[in-house]
Amino acid sequence: MKDVHENGIRPRRGALLMGLRHRLRRPLSFYLTALLVVAIVPSFLFSMVILKRITDEQERVVTALLKASTGSVTRIVEREIDGMLTTLKALSPGNEIDPSNLAALHERATTALAGTGNNLILIDRSGHQLLNTRVPFGTALGSVSDPASVEQAFQRGQPMVSDVFFGKTAGHWVYNLYLPVRTPLGNPDYLMTLTGDASNMQKAVNRDILSPGWSAALLDRSGKLITSSDPSLPVGKPFFMALVPSLNVGIGEAAHDGETYRTVTEFSVSTGWRIVAWAKSSDVDAPVLWSYLWLVLGAVLFAAFALTGSTLIARILSQGVSMLARDARLLGEGRPIAARAHMITEVETVSQAIAEAAQARAKAENEIRFLMREVAHRSKNQLTVIQSMLNQSVTNTESRQDFVDMFRKRIAGLARSTDLMIANAAHGVDFGELAQNQLQPFVPEDPKRVRLSGPPVRLDAQVSQTLGMALHELATNATKYGALANGTGIVDLTWTLENDDIVIVWRERGADLSGLGEPRKGFGTMVLERMLAMALGAKLKRSLHEDGIEWHVTIPQARLQVEQPDKG
């Protein structure tokens, strides 16, 4: 019964699907129009999400710019204060003054501060002004206008910036930079004070460094206004939003008289002042609202254009699809394909991509063939080298164990050269790195007994194997018979570039050669005299000194350079 039931359902389901496909057979323009209608609403919603992300990102960018602007204001303020402090220290070398010669100090300060907008005041511990460059020397002076900051500066005993205050002598709002100084007797009873007009800080809050719609203000530690880019804000009064000094450093929001503001604040460590930038939230959000309105309008226009032009686009798409289908078949057959021009740039882009894929396929096939040839070539070379090592090891050893040890060490040296060759296949093997790698197993406890020196020289992969074997055999001989066979001998390996040649010198010193006679020619000698000479055109010279052997190997530099293989 189950089989009958299933056999009855399947034909009916198939017939239903066939009927549905028959009824839904429509031209491409119909489905394109339906697709556009279905896509309009989701696309619009998706565009809203994207726009929201974009506006959020823009807001982050604006925030970063504002932070940079407030940071720039902070740096301008701190540079101004640092300049004033430098001036104070220049007027009081060693932070000392001579109270008996204030007239000279007054004259020197008047000359130095001319045109700067700053003035020098000398204050004693009682808060009395001893001199003030705003008035001629000898003019009767009273007490300071800001005794609280004077007392605080004496207590700190180090440079300090005051809050803004109304200067009685100046007749307008000023701030002071205090520098405690001593008399020649060492008494810390005076403050060298450089007073600056609050208006001088106007350059720090210039609107040119702010984003449109934003204002900035410089506030002292108590929250009073020093200067502002908004000329309507009064100097010396608390900030109008009444948020400073409780306002945190960074990004924030505040409200005043029913209006919401965005704020950015920065803190000056050297002065204790704050920099505040602010703008109305409505002004900041207005571009976002306009962006949403334009999005809605664009969606409507897009829908109208898409619906009216769907038939024409479908016809063009059909042509493009047919063209791409032909190119795809050619690609599958491995035949070359030329990029086709088309009215629709996306179709043309796909055609270009298919053409590039055909070229990439052909190039990849060529590269594979090249790599196979290269693998076969290098494998043959390796086998040839190993066969030569085997023959020499058999010839030059007296016991089976000696043969095994010697052959294993030579294979290990060849492996180290191969590792370097593989690791540096693209750029070649550095001769210094090759030498250090090959000689490392032979270096005694005192590493100063094996010394390497020479300029950077890049070797071809095959060349590095030959030189690596030569260095291995030279080190082996030095360990058995030469400078490394005792506890004091030294091996110097140097290489230099002379004209168009590379000169390699292996020099052993401190070797005990008594009783050895003339050194026999083993595998290392064969590598130097045959393989280097034949493969690299090297000129070799061997000298036997009283304290050790010396090899001079001269190789044309061009024979060692890395050559890029032809992959064509």
What's the SSE blueprint?
Layout: H1 2-23, H2 28-91, H3 102-112, E1 118-124, E2 129-132, H4 147-156, E3 160-161, E4 165-166, E5 173-181, E6 190-197, E7 215-219, E8 225-228, E9 250-256, E10 259-267, E11 274-280, H5 281-332, H6 345-395, H7 400-423, E12 429-430, H8 431-439, E13 450-453, E14 458-459, H9 461-480, E15 490-498, E16 501-509, H10 523-536, E17 539-545, E18 548-556
Helix pairs in contact: 2-5, 5-6, 6-7, 7-8, 7-9, 8-9, 9-10
| Number of E strands | 18
**Contiguous runs where pLDDT drops below 50 for at least 5 residues:** 563-568
> In the residues, how many domains can be counted?
2
Radius of gyration: 44 Å
What's a concise summary of this model?
This protein has ten helices and 18 strands. It has 568 residues and is of the alpha+beta class.
Describe the structure.
The protein has 568 residues and is α+β, with helices and mostly antiparallel strands. It folds into two domains: 47-284, PAS domain (Beta-Lactamase), CATH 3.30.450.20; 380-559, Heat Shock Protein 90 (2-Layer Sandwich). It has helices at residues 2-23, 28-91, 102-112, 147-156, 281-332, 345-395, 400-423, 431-439, 461-480, 523-536, and strands spanning 118-124, 129-132, 160-161, 165-166, 173-181, 190-197, 215-219, 225-228, 250-256, 259-267, 274-280, 429-430, 450-453, 458-459, 490-498, 501-509, 539-545, 548-556. Strands 1, 2, 3, 4, 5 and 6 form a six-stranded antiparallel β-sheet that branches. Strands 8-7-11-10-9 form a five-stranded antiparallel β-sheet. A hairpin with a 2-residue loop joins strand 15 (490-498) and strand 16. It is flat.
